[in-house]
Design goal:
This protein is an alpha+beta fold. The chain folds into two domains: about 130 residues, Beta Barrel (Butyryl-CoA Dehydrogenase, subunit A, domain 2); about 150 residues, Butyryl-CoA Dehydrogenase, subunit A, domain 3 (Up-down Bundle). Helix 3 runs antiparallel to helix 6.
Length: about 300
Amino acid sequence: MILAEASQPIAEHWQCRLDRGDLVGIAATEWRGGSRLQEITTRARPAGRDRWRISGEKVWVSRLHESSAFVVFFRDPDNRITAGLVDAAAPGLHREVVDPFGLAGWSWGLLQFHGVSFDPAADLVGPVGEGLGVFRRHFSRFRPLVTATALGAAAGVHSFTTTVLAAKLTEGALSRIRDNALIVLGRTYAEITAALLSALTTSRLAAMGHPGADLSARLGKAAGVDAAYRAVTDLAPLLGAAGFQRSSMIAKVRADLTGLLYADGIHDSLYRSGGRSLMCQRSSTKHDEPTQQMRSPSSR
């Protein structure tokens, strides 16, 4: 996000830091608005002639303690949604870690801003008031990667399950693979593959800056992670009780995929926003059709 949206000096500075291994967190979600950026209440107020002070709270922030800085989405003094970089060591920044179910690896939790000083001349990510566009462009690129990660995990479970069943058949532990198991293997393979192809297409659209990338990313993430979770849920019983042990790789993947059903937008919200976008597109097309017909010489 920084490399794509920030000014050249900031982007070059952070390119070096990222190459050294520094991490950046994203602080967007709030209690009221979830991932609906239009409803955020974290706000920056003037603090003298050249600085602002940010106050508010962000929730479910990943890399809470590992990040060197955070890209924060807030309302600027003119109430416009703006994005900016806040140093992780900034005075007034407070972290509260929450223990997640699944998705272990990075710390995760709440990020509070108590009058954190911000320099709009140096620390903006994108122009003032363009936070919503920055957010959408970034997540058009990011969501296909989340989707592909989820589908990769499901594909791993599929390969593991197929290998185990084949080995049991060879060893004589099973006399045959029942039809219902074969159906699950075939269906989940097709669903994982189709969703992965969709994610790859969306990633290409986002790289091209295609206007349809945002919609495809929202719906593709929801549908792709749903497909991955459903596949693992259906494959686990084929392994018997072994697939439900806490120490099992299958149980770990199911826990992680459960987290991804909520991370980066609850799926009902993503489907609903996608449906709304489709209706808006259709309404706009319907509105334009009579005008186009009246103006077109061929329609007379």
